[in-house]
Structures are given as C-alpha cells and as structure tokens.
Inverse folding.
C-alpha cells in the first residue's frame, strides 16, 4: 500500500463515527449491510451517515453494490489487510509473522443463518 493511501485510510478512520461504521461493516462480513441497517444500529441520521460513508469510500475502505433500491455497503478487506500489513511490516524486528498479525478473511454466511456478532458501540446514550 502506498503512503498516500495509508494516510487517507488512517484519516478516514480517525473520526469516531467512521470508525464505528467501519467496525460494524467488518463484523457484518462479506455480505455487508444496507444503509438503513447501519443507520439503525448506530443511531446516525441519513445525511450524516451518507457523508461518513462517502469519506470511507473515498479512502477505498468500503465498497457498495445496489440490490434493487437498496445500497449494500461492505468493508474492503483487501484494503484493510494492506493497511494492517503496512502498519506491521517492521514489527517484531522485521518479522511480522512472529507478531501473530494475520490477514482478515470474512467467513461466508449462509443465507438465513443467524449471525452472532457484537454490535458496534452505539452512539445512543453517550
């Protein structure tokens, strides 16, 4: 990953709502989440959510696809893994494998199969 891409990704994640959104999408896995589900989970108004999703999209940290009238957002796992690799390439005296840092690969979720993930920190009640 080039240095400018790293800076853009870190800048995008340096804001609390965007970090919450990204973590929620990572937890959601490859199937992603609709904009409405993200807004509901995090208690964000749609205009605010749209702004933050655009920032994450600009940093290439999320992708989206259209499903009928819905937009489904997903974490861009290859970009996230490149960012992690960049940040840890010199850890443990140059042997990143000794640090136990690996790649994140989202597990496929069977249709209709219940998922049990911890919800992202809610913005409600803060």
């Amino acid at each position: 990953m080039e240095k400018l891409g790293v800076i853009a990704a870190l800048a995008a994640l340096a804001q609390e709502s965007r970090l919450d959104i990204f973590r929620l999408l990572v937890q959601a896995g490859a199937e992603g989440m609709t904009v409405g589900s993200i807004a509901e989970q995090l208690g964000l108004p749609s205009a605010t959510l749209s702004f933050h999703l655009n920032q994450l999209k600009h940093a290439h940290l999320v992708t989206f696809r259209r499903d009928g009238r819905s937009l489904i957002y997903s974490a861009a796992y290859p970009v996230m893994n490149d960012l992690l690799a960049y940040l840890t390439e010199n850890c443990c005296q140059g042997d990143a494998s000794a640090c136990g840092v690996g790649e994140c690969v989202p597990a496929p979720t069977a249709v209709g199969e219940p998922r049990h993930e911890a919800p992202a920190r809610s913005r409600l009640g803060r």
Remarks:
- The two ends are 36 Å apart (CA to CA).
- Residues 111-126 have pLDDT under 50 and may be disordered.
